[in-house]
Write a structure and sequence with these properties.
The chain has two domains: about 10-80, Roll (Class II Histocompatibility Antigen, M Beta Chain, Chain B, domain 1); about 90-180, Immunoglobulins (Immunoglobulin-like). It has two helices and 13 strands, in the order E-E-E-E-H-E-E-E-E-E-E-E-E-E-H. It has helices at about 60-80, 190-220, and strands at about 10-15, 20-25, 30-35, 40-45, 90-95, 105-115, 120-125, 130, 135-140, 140-145, 150-155, 165-170, 175-180. Belongs to the MHC class II family. This is DMA protein.
Length: about 220
């Protein structure tokens, strides 16, 4: 069998909206590094990653690429404005827990926002309609194969019954907001679930047995 194919890609974008510049290195659609242009340094997606080799694509080289990107953008914008429709994507938000739910124990809510294009959205959180800012972290934009972007937002939580968490995705340039909700559902204990399933199976078996006896009696009477 042939070995699996892997794709290592580097995506640079520039735009009039914030962030005006972005650069991400991905491996099979998973972000590995992103370049912090204000700080002129490569930043690993996870803290356990080794540092970026300083001799590979130095900040000075990347800044030259960014300047070229901005110049091309302005030139192409002048030529295409009013002649070619602008491509935009409607963000899609999904909320899920990083760990299995246990009410009253710390956990992390993840808001995954996909189909982002252009890569310029704000992500905020609410708990019971009250804005939450503590315990919130955002990732850099990750480019996908369909030319759209994905961004994640994390919120440290301690779920309780009755809580309503809200992830709000806003694209200010178009005055568009996408909202996703998450409500903790107390999982059914496995013992209770097993007992309920056994009871349902037993009731179904008795019902089928009675139905069979009835059909036999009716058949004999007709005979």
């Amino acid at each position: 069998a042939e070995p699996p194919l892997h794709v290592l890609s580097e995506t640079l974008f520039c735009q009039p909206d914030m962030p005006s510049l972005g650069l991400a290195l991905t491996f099979d659609a998973d972000q590995v590094f992103w370049f912090d242009f204000p700080g002129s340094r490569w930043t690993p997606r996870l803290p356990d990653f080794p540092p970026w080799p300083p001799a590979v694509e130095t900040p000075a080289q990347l800044l030259q690429d960014a300047t070229l990107c901005q110049d091309l953008r302005r030139y192409i914008t002048e030529l295409a404005t009013g002649k070619i429709p602008e491509s935009k994507g409607i963000p899609v938000a999904t909320i899920f827990l990083a760990q299995p739910l246990v009410l009253g124990e710390p956990n992390t809510l993840v808001c995954m926002v996909g189909n982002i294009f252009p890569p310029a959205v704000d992500i905020s959180w609410q708990l019971n309609d009250i804005p939450v800012t503590q315990g919130v972290t955002h990732t850099h934009y990750t480019p996908m194969n369909d030319l759209a972007f994905v961004r994640f937002s994390y919120l440290s939580v301690t779920p309780a019954t009755g809580d309503i968490y809200t992830c709000i995705v806003t694209r200010k340039m178009d005055n568009i907001s996408v909202i996703a909700y998450w409500v903790p559902q107390n999982p059914v204990p496995s013992e209770v679930l097993e007992t309920a399933l056994c009871g349902a199976a037993m009731a179904l078996g008795i019902l089928l047995a009675l139905l069979g006896i009835t059909m036999i009696v009716v058949a004999r009477r007709n005979a």
